[in-house]
Amino acid sequence: MSGVAITGASGYVGSAVTRCFRAHGWQVLELGRRTGNFDLGGKMALDWSGIDALVHCAWDFGLKRWADIERVNVQGSLRLLEAARDAGVTRGVFISSLSCFAGCRSLYGKAKLAVEPEAARIGFSVVRPGLVYGDSPRGMMGTLEKAVKAGPVVPLIGDGSQPQYPVHEEDLAELVFALCQSQKSTAEPIAAASGEAIPFRELLRRIAARHSRKPIFVAIPWRLILAGLKTMEGVGLNPPFRSDSLTGFVFQNPDPHFEVAHQITSFRAFQ
Fold first, then answer.
1. pTM exceeds cut of 0.90
2. Cα–Cα distance, 13 to 179 (Å, whole number)
3. What is the DSSP string of 100-166?
4. Contact residues for 234 (Cβ-Cβ < 8 A; gap 6+)
């Protein structure tokens, strides 16, 4: 039986990937804080016996300062990848983000960008998912669902024209599984989504329709929202939408390509 180690296995993406591998008959070693056997910012005394592949999903989203992000997320990821390489684990996937691209402005994107080359160097594939969703969404899509269901008025970031690229959690997991089965990694990061560019306003409208709602959109300048988020964070509050996430939302990858992902597995359209 093949074995895979999955970091952040209790997180949104990690749990979907875990379910997928188990459904395909793989033995899964769950790594994370909840299981008490892995911490990006702590020790990594890992037992790699029986592990054929690694999927690195873990990320500490609670950090706001670049020094902390670099120390925990970047350096922790690099140490993990080095440990896997030294243990002879030659197949794997690093879960990056569509927010990650040359010239990205968000700290999240820059941190992912700092890890991608090391993952590729040891022979792992790099996957950049779009906006992940499912029947019980968490993460960003979960936040948007809550906003739509909270009341009749839904705030809109700017004019709501920002393109969004949804990817179903099961389709993303199948892509990751296929890459871990392959003996070859891809040369470039793989953008993972259905490929349809859905304007933010239309995305919210479709989410609302699922819950039989017809929201009233109120446009708010993104710079005003950014100032408010930074003020909240500056006094120690934790808003549901981080200022760095807004930066990544506003300054997106201008030209993502999904052809490679679509050659490996199928992606359903967001309805």
1. yes
2. 16
3. -STT--SHHHHHHHHHHHHHHHTT-EEEEE-EEE-SS--HHHHHHHHHHHH-SEEEEETTS--EE-E
4. none
- Residue position matching structure tokens 């109120």: 218
* CA dihedral sign of residues 113, 114, 117, 118: negative
- Short-list 41, 39, 31, CA closest to 92: 31
Residue 186 in this model has a pLDDT that exceeds 80? no
Domain 3-264 matching CATH 1.10.580.10: the answer reads: no
Helix (H) or strand (E) holding 208: helix 200-210
In the three-class reduction of DSSP (H, G, I as helix; E, B as strand; rest coil), residue 66 is classed as helix
Q: Is the pLDDT of residue 240 over 90?
A: no
What are the structure tokens assigned to 61, written together?
A: 């989203």
Q: How far apart are CA 127 and CA 249, in angstroms?
A: 18
- For residue 191, the SS3 value is strand
Cα angle vertex 229, ends 16, 14, to 5°?
10
